[in-house]
Amino acid sequence: MKTALRFGSFFLLVLVAACVPSVQNTVEITPPSETLIVEATVNSQFAEGLTEQELKSMSYISPNSGILVQLVEGVYADESMTLTLLPQVAIGDLNGDAIDDAAVLLAENEGGTGTFVSLVVIASRDGTFDQVGTTIIDDRPVIESLTIQEGTIRLNALVHSLNDAMVSPTEKESFTYRLLENNLTMMRRTSTLQGGMERLIIIENPQNGSEVSDTFRIAGSMPEAPFENNLSLTILDQAGAEFYRGGFMVTSEEMGEPAVFDNEITLPAIPSGTWVKLELTDISMADGSVISMESVLVKIK
Predict the structure, then answer these.
(1) Domains of the chain, with CATH numbers?
(2) What is the DSSP letter of 140?
């Protein structure tokens, strides 16, 4: 009798054990919850920043008319204007927060033949993305490239010179921009004439990021001297407020030949520790446009 009871108890234990699911198997086959998957995707997208597809469906302040419009697949149109996102898009960190920002080109037509193209920057700020800078490039330029490299925007385009037909820009221009205190700021501009000569300014002293006293030397060179050997010098803070505007002469053997400059500059009263932009500009005497520009950021001792 005892043997039968023991056998029955053993059989019952085996039967119960067979009905209990394996804990290890349960962990392996249970998928993550849907909520966790969604949160991971959202966080990943935010950490990486903007995408080209998101830029096609964002709201923008139109550069010319100044109204807020919503793009649909890269286009906004009503009876008064058309705003189009051009295919050249650059994505990368511009403000040092490790989140990808974007530089885009918006083409705006308000009727007539003119279509004005502007560079627009969308940057991360306090968990959102804002339109923080806009600058016009030209009426119907030919865009060759738009990139973000080492925190700067590089734009290459054909723009109109003084005698160009509006449908055929011929002047090759290269622009470099940075965000300074969330202001879109041009740091460099060069031009290449039809003969192939590149017009640019090279600043050798002071170096970008260096410190200067209230009196310092500014030295450098140019492959071709400016008209009447004059360069314009402007000193601004990072928000664009002007401290000083003047100029100086460069040295060149003949007009159109290479030039050098080495001049002593005395600053106006600027608080110690202030970062300023030293901007040299070669200005066309024909129409007042900028032929070339170079700048460096320096800190006042």
Answers:
(1) 197-301 (2.60.40.1220)
(2) S
